[in-house]
Amino acid sequence: MGIGNIGQARYSAVSMIFHWVIAVMVIWNWRLAENAEHATREQAMAIFADHKALGIAILALSLARLLWRLTHKVPPLPANYATWERVLARTTHVLFYVLLIGLPVGGWLANSLAGREIDMFGLFTIPPLPVGRNGELGSRIFDLHAAGGTIMVYLIGLHILGALKHTFFDRDGGIFRMLPFGRVSREVRR
Ligand code: HEM
Ligand code: HEM
User: Fold this and answer.
1) Structural domain of residue 121, as residue ranges?
2) Using an 8 Å Cβ cutoff, are 187 and 80 in contact?
3) pLDDT per residue of the chain (190 residues) written in tens, 0 to 9
4) Is 152 domain-assigned?
5) In testing the pocket of ligand 1, which one of 51, 62, 63 has its CB within 8 Å of the most ligand atoms?
6) Of 104, 106, 124, 183, which is the most exposed, with the fewest CB atoms less than 10 Å away?
7) Among 111, 96, 10, 115, which residue's Cα sits nearest to residue 58?
8) How close is the Cα of 30 to the center of ligand 1, in Å?
9) Total structural domains in the chain?
10) Distance (Å, rounded) from C-alpha 109 to C-alpha 116?
């Protein structure tokens, strides 16, 4: 059975690719930021150069993903979801989109307030946003950025717990809704 004819019970191939590519990039970028904490100043500079470039790549992909999301249908949640599960799942997903765009925009803004550009892996550079210089505001935004990053990590944990619960406990699809194989529940409430 190909991805094309599995109907509405799971996400589309495009959604799956966006989901897994961005998920790997986000987890990678979080690990980069964490590694910088235990590095020398010089190493930290190099790590943050990668963190910033990867963050901007995540921003570009997330904007494309959101545009796709808003213009295409997604599979409804399985019928057996309790109301609290629907609300929790949807809230987590909305917060993910807010953070996927808010974190890199905040990082870019704070970086710009320090007058810095972003080197995209040596391919090209992203100029600072035209916001002038304000180091103090920049470091406050970085504090918010770090807090937002921590919130995102907890949300990822919650999201994985939800996927595990629905895969192995409720057995209504769970992770298979985001994968092109495995059994998913076709019973939906419209
Ligand atoms: C989706 C993309 C991004 C994610 C998920 C992310 C996540 C994080 C996380 C988890 C931290 C560490 C917080 C901590 O434990 O202290 C961090 C720190 C940082 N990020 Fe990002 N980030 C992203 C994009 C960016 C971008 C685009 C920039 C700059 C252009 C940036 C610049 C920084 C800097 C400079 C720090 C250190 C902040 C500090 O400790 O004062 N990040 N980020
Ligand atoms: C950085 C990590 C991740 C982010 C930012 C993320 C983000 C998202 C978002 C925004 C959605 C909603 C899609 C939409 O309706 O537009 C979603 C759905 C989903 N994610 Fe993740 N995800 C991440 C990691 C994971 C992991 C590790 C798993 C598996 C353990 C997973 C499993 C799923 C599943 C199964 C769905 C479909 C939910 C449903 O049944 O409707 N995700 N994810």
Assistant:
1) 13-178
2) yes
3) 333 334 578 999 999 999 999 999 999 999 999 999 999 999 999 999 999 999 999 999 999 999 999 999 999 999 999 999 999 999 999 999 999 999 999 999 999 999 999 999 999 999 999 999 999 999 999 999 999 999 999 999 999 999 999 999 999 999 999 999 999 987 766 5
4) yes
5) 51
6) 124
7) 96
8) 7
9) 1
10) 10
